[in-house]
Amino acid sequence: xxxxxxxxxxxxxxxxxxxxxxxxxxxxxxxxxxxxxxxxxxxxxxxxxxxxxxxxxxxxxxxxxxxxxxxxxxxxxxxxxxxxxxxxxxxxxxxxxxxxxxxxxxxxxxxxxxxxxxxxxxxxxxxxxxxxxxxxxxxxxxxxxxxxxxxxxxxxxxxxxxxxxxxxxxxxxxxxxxxxxxxxxxxxxxxxxxxxxxxxxxxxxxxxxxxxxxxxxxxxxxxxxxxxxxxxxxxxxxxxxxxxxxxxxxxxxxxxxxxxxxxxxxxxxxxxxxxxxxxxxxxxxxxxxxxxxxxxxxxxxxxxxxxxxxxxxxxxxxxxxxxxxxxxxxxxxxxxxxxxxxxxxxxxxxxxxxxxxxxxxxxxxxxxxxxxxxxxxxxxxxxxxxxxxxxxxxxxxxxxxxxx
Length: 404
Fold this sequence. Notes:
Layout: H1 4-8, H2 11-20, E1 23-26, E2 31-34, H3 37-45, E3 50-51, H4 55-58, H5 60-63, H6 73-85, H7 89-107, E4 115-117, H8 118-135, H9 142-157, H10 163-189, H11 195-201, E5 203-204, E6 207-208, H12 211-226, H13 229-242, H14 244-252, H15 257-267, E7 273-278, E8 282-284, E9 287-289, E10 294-298, H16 299-302, H17 347-364, E11 369-370, E12 378-379, E13 385-386, E14 390-392, E15 396-397, E16 401-402
Parallel strand pairs: 2-10
Antiparallel strand pairs: 1-2, 3-7, 4-14, 5-6, 7-10, 8-9, 11-14, 12-13, 15-16
């Protein structure tokens, strides 16, 4: 699991893991990895037997406080509702307009050139911009925030950190905390319509949240909103370029776009691992996992389980066993957003965000193809996506006129 071979192409190992060692123990990190859909779903939906206690060590030091995934009961319900309100209804409509404007501005310089790296030129800045817009933070600070965000994300998603990298990540968290502190003070005294203002003014059990609570939830949202977005946008275009007949169908029928996004999330989920801790010993496929053990749910392997999906290693936007409408809800068959109590709060936002961006880009990126000499490569065990995606397309000049 920690080998270079696995890191290069995890999907080559999924079937072998599910069939031969559905409970795989990795002694170097004293953790168990589950690869079957039914086992992963069981862990993610039984939050009494499989807890999120490991986030005290894996997340809290850089989140500067407890995150949503650590909460249960009334506290979780109340705080989740506050965050969800920032991603739905009229707030979501405002965000969609901002997303469209943001994406158009970022792509504009590349249209006359007919070439763009969809990850580094567009996806990464776009994802951070979109998260800052939701939070009501200054977009001019995006590169600074992106650097701190990367350090925080590295801490949360690394299976093993050197002491030097750990210090770097904690330093990023401290700097992000210091950046947010005056913003929180200002929103408490002069709240607006942004999510930080909602967090600062919301009450839980008649008490407003502390600065530490608000900071943790801001960083929680920043990571959740920014980390998977650029990966999913790039992966969507990669799969459509690799399947030109499906690309043509999506171009012809925009209603198929949501299905293409849902299938991208199933086929190549940007979040590959979700950790939990066993409260008591648990048995999977005849193997006992001891109490107190860390269990990693392998989302990529579960999403390609033939017991859950027909012909799972084929990218197919028309598959009957996915269901576009439910793919962005708690009823989703794929597990890219997790499942159960701690399913991703931003699933509806993710759909709106990626659909808005893709609907804007598809007509602009006419005859889109890989740039000459481009070699595709993915990285990441916990979260995974393309290192780059260099694309050529028909240049766009002036107000949408094209030159072949």
